[in-house]
Design goal:
The protein is α/β, with parallel strands linked by helices. It has 13 helices and 8 strands. β1, α2 and β2 form a beta-alpha-beta unit. Bound molecules: thiamine diphosphate, iron/sulfur cluster and magnesium ion (MG).
Length: about 350
């Protein structure tokens, strides 16, 4: 006899004021990612983990490929999870999670697992999701396993010493992209557009981007991804204070400024309508409002800042927003000459206010 697979539907949180920094809806009291882990103070991925698991609730199983959020969270016989959690090799987040999804489906159908279909999710770093494990996640999305695949993006291979990854931004300094006479900008390449690649390449999947600057948006997109029957992908911007060099209290602020400066568009792709819905932030800032908070950009010269502003302006156009004259003018390196003349405008290894 075949048993029915009963799926959960998680309610969405009120979002009318959801993008107000001080708005906190009634959240579940339970914390499937409990206190007591060992990530750095202000760690963006840890904030994301907590909110995602609060949104998912207790009837959840989680996988985590190798990265900071595996290494810093688990020692022998000790993890902060109050839900079942498994570590996977860095390349296998997609295949492992596919296996969990297929396994639960089969066990429930055969009557060998009595419960509802659990929320199944994996949270992989950018090194895993955008690079070493990209193939296995793409395969899982393509085969449409019913699970949520999340990339927590701290724009570097953090755990092994802040090396460059495909999502490290242009001019972002890492230990593999130091700046010097030969390459003054540090990183020469623009970041891989991971989420667009996932949406365009797997148009039957729910795909969205978000940041730790928008907690309600992050939690609702988690729930939408889990409610979607089939595969879903969420790309979440999560600052790494150790690798990016900023004041630890600024993690959430960075999650807002990156959007307000046009460097990380927040959107949602609806697989039924096959359309993108872009968030239009109420504030548009020059990129320097974002760059100047982080030591990893402290070496940038006027021409590098101008190149970054030109990229942000292209993003504004892409999401259907006008580029104000003031931001267009900042594509001219001469407008940033002050940064060059005033040595301390973008101080190396210091965050805002330091
Ligand atoms: C196949 C393989 N290559 C390299 C490593 C070494 N390694 C362990 S953690 C890590 C960094 C992963 O970066 P990311 O996925 O971005 O996670 P983060 O550390 O930034 O949280 C690397 C390269 C590994 N474990 N397996
Ligand atoms: S190095 Fe970065 S990602 Fe890793 S625990 Fe520290 S802040 Fe978090
Ligand atoms: Mg990373």
């Amino acid at each position: 006899m075949t048993h029915e697979v009963v799926r959960q539907t998680l309610p969405l949180l009120e979002e009318e004021d959801g993008r107000d920094l001080y708005y906190l809806p009634d959240l579940p009291e339970e914390d499937p990612y409990a206190a007591g882990h060992r990530t750095c103070a202000g760690c963006g991925p840890a904030i994301q983990y907590r909110w995602v698991l609060k949104a998912a609730g207790q009837d959840t199983v989680v996988a985590g490929p190798t990265g900071c959020m595996y290494v810093a969270n688990s020692t022998y016989l000790c993890t902060p999870y109050t839900v079942p959690w498994a570590h996977t090799p860095i390349a296998s987040g997609g295949s492992f999670t596919s296996g969990m999804a297929a396994g639960y489906e089969a066990m429930i159908r055969k009557g060998r697992y009595p419960g509802r279909y659990p929320n199944i999710l994996v949270m992989a770093g950018d090194g895993s999701a955008a690079d070493i494990g990209l193939g296995s996640i793409s395969g899982a999305l393509y085969r449409n396993h019913d699970a949520l695949f999340i990339c927590y993006d701290n724009e570097c291979y953090a755990n092994t010493g802040i090396q460059t990854s495909p999502t490290t931004p242009y001019a972002g300094m890492t230990t593999f992209t130091p700046f010097g006479k030969a390459i003054p900008e540090g990183k020469k390449l623009p970041p891989k557009n991971l989420a667009k690649m996932m949406a365009e390449g797997h148009p039957h999947c729910y795909v969205a981007t978000t940041t730790v600057g928008y907690p309600v948006d992050l939690m609702n997109k988690t729930r939408k991804g889990l409610n979607h029957v089939g595969a879903a992908f969420l790309h979440c911007y999560t600052p790494c204070q150790k690798g990016w060099v900023y004041q630890t209290s600024m993690t959430v602020e960075l999650g807002r400024r990156v959007v307000e400066s046009g460097l990380f568009p927040v959107w949602e792709y609806d697989p039924h309508e096959r359309t993108y819905h872009y968030f239009h932030p109420p504030v548009q800032r020059p990129v320097t409002d974002y760059l100047a908070m982080q030591g990893r950009f402290g070496h940038m010269l006027p021409e590098h800042v101008a190149t970054t502003q030109a990229g942000a302006n292209r993003n504004w156009e892409l999401i259907g927003m006008d580029v104000p004259r003031a931001l267009r003018d900042l594509e001219d390196p001469a407008r940033h000459q002050r940064l060059h003349d005033e040595e301390y405008s973008m101080p190396l290894n210091r965050g805002i206010g330091a």
